[in-house]
Amino acid sequence: MSIEIVNNEDVEIHCSVYGSGPPLIMLHGIPDYSGGWHYQIEALKHSHQLICPDLRGINNSSKPLTADAYSMQALVSDVAAIIDHFGLSKVDVLGHDFGGAMAWWTAISLPRHTKRLAVLSAPHPADYIAAARGDPAQRKAMEYIGTFLNMANADTLNIDQLSSWVNDRQLQDKLKAALVNTPAQALANYYVGTLSNLKSLVLDTIPAVQNPTLVIRGQLDPYVLPHLYSDTWRHVDAELNMVCLPRAGHFVHHEAHKQVNAHLEHFFG
Questions:
Q1: What is the phi-psi region of residue 258: left when phi exceeds 0, alpha when psi lies from -120 to 50, beta otherwise?
Q2: How far is CA 149 from CA 129, 153, 185, in A?
Q3: What are the tens digits of pLDDT across the range 47-90?
Q4: Which of 32, 130, 217, 256 is the most buried (most CB within 10 A)?
Q5: What beta strand segments (E) does 169-235 contain?
Q6: Beta carbons within 8 Å of 195's beta carbon, 6+ residues apart
Q7: How far apart are CA 35 and CA 42, in angstroms?
């Protein structure tokens, strides 16, 4: 592993880099950090150059505290800065949860730089935003966002609660250490900055993804309901592969890592 610091104006993005080969940018979710890709790194580092950033605000990356610093435009600009820093023309992109939303928007916003797109536990933004606006069942499933807002108001993270989804003790301890180094306001701003920024977005104006796409979800995901994936095909003007893992929840990259890795190796292989 090597470390690269990517500068995006006044934000420094801390990237852990593994292996060599075709470049793959791996965008973690919330609450997580770059090391949360442990199982996927072990599976893919022998065939790819894996670029695993700590997203802004998290662990070793810069920690702006204003909500505007976490607009989706700002987050995608970090991905663009990574692409520029490494001198890449086209990259594969993988994201989970909020990193999955970033991955979708990277393919939408940077189609010429995106080769293939894989997203875990993250429906297309148009379907997620539409549900957040007017789907009572999904709005109830999103009540967890209030947990981040309450922690920000208290200016402290409940680290035990936020790391409880990791079963392996050593990996959980590493996540806890990353969360100790993460301000509560930064995590909250991922939702405050992004959702407020997208309130007025006209969903029909979002361009279709032009890249081969793989979507993996857990059937037992309590945070993203299954019907949010039903119209994914409408948003992808390229080969689309949809995978549902019946005994997995939201954190499929840990809960069903062997199955997830097999699909990723085939897709990116």
A1: alpha
A2: 19, 6, 8
A3: 999 999 999 999 999 999 898 999 999 999 999 999 999 999 99
A4: 32
A5: 213-218
A6: 132
A7: 11
